[in-house]
Structures are given as C-alpha cells and as structure tokens.
From TrEMBL:
Keywords: Membrane, Transmembrane, Transmembrane helix. This is TMM60 protein. PANTHER family: FAM11A, B PROTEIN, TRANSMEMBRANE PROTEIN 60. The chain crosses the membrane at residues 36-58, 78-99, 105-129. It comes from the Eukaryota. The gene is Tmem60. The keyword Translocase does not apply. The keyword Membrane applies.
Length: 134
C-alpha cells in the first residue's frame, strides 16, 4: 500500500491541525486535559511513520537482497529511525515535565531535541559538502 504525496501531505496537515487545536485549548485553560492526551495526535503520526520505516527496513532482510546495492539508503533509514526515537523521547520527557510526574530540570528534557537538531545539521552538512569521487 503506497500513499501519494497529496495523501501524505493531507495526513500530516490533519494531525498537525488536531494537535494545535488541542494545544490551544489546553493553553487557554478551556480543556483540563492531561498533557499526554494533548500529544496523542503527534504520537499517532509518529507511530505511523515508525511502522512504515520499520517495514521498509525489514524488507531489506528478505532473501535475495544484495546489501551492497542499498547500504547508503539503509544508513539513511537508520538515521530516520534514530531521529524518530529522539523525537519520541523528547515528547515523553516534555509531557512528564509539564504534567509534573518528574522533577527533572528543563535542560535535561531538551537533550534529545538538541541531539536531534545536531544530527540533522550534521546530515545536512554532509549532504551539501560531500562530493562523490567516482
């Protein structure tokens, strides 16, 4: 099952809109919801992305696949998986802090986000400045 670009954009837009509506209601104190409930659209969207990514990565394990053909692609998918897990860790730590489940300092809550941003900058720099010498 493949989704077209328009379907992916619409799905992203809908989940973002739902999250923002719930966030505004919580911040305006119109809804006394738990912070974990506010982030449910983000987690549903991330779960969909993680499942799609894991299925694509698992497809590389089937018999007859030559790993030399897609090793660079597999590294990129591994980075995507790490990035999704860092984003998930940040969202969980943020919700735990906002809900006052933990007394962790806010600087520690943002460590997964900083690692994600640093990794994204390194990947961007690598893709911009890497010159293939064939």
């Amino acid at each position: 099952m493949r989704m077209s670009l328009a379907q992916r954009v619409l799905l992203t837009w809908l989940f973002t809109l739902l999250f923002l509506i719930m966030l505004v209601l919580k911040l305006d104190e119109k809804a006394p919801w738990n912070w974990f409930l506010i982030f449910i659209p983000v987690w549903i969207f991330d779960t969909i992305l993680l499942v799609m990514l894991i299925v694509k990565m698992a497809g590389r394990c089937k018999s007859g696949f030559d790993p030399r053909n897609g090793s660079q692609n597999m590294k990129k998918k591994a980075w995507y998986l790490i990035a999704m897990l860092l984003k998930l860790a940040f969202c969980l730590a943020l919700c735990a802090k906002l809900q006052r489940f933990t007394s962790i300092r806010l600087a520690y809550v943002f460590i997964p986000l900083w690692a994600l941003l640093l990794g994204g900058m390194l990947e961007l720099g690598y893709n911009i400045f890497y010159v293939r010498r064939d």
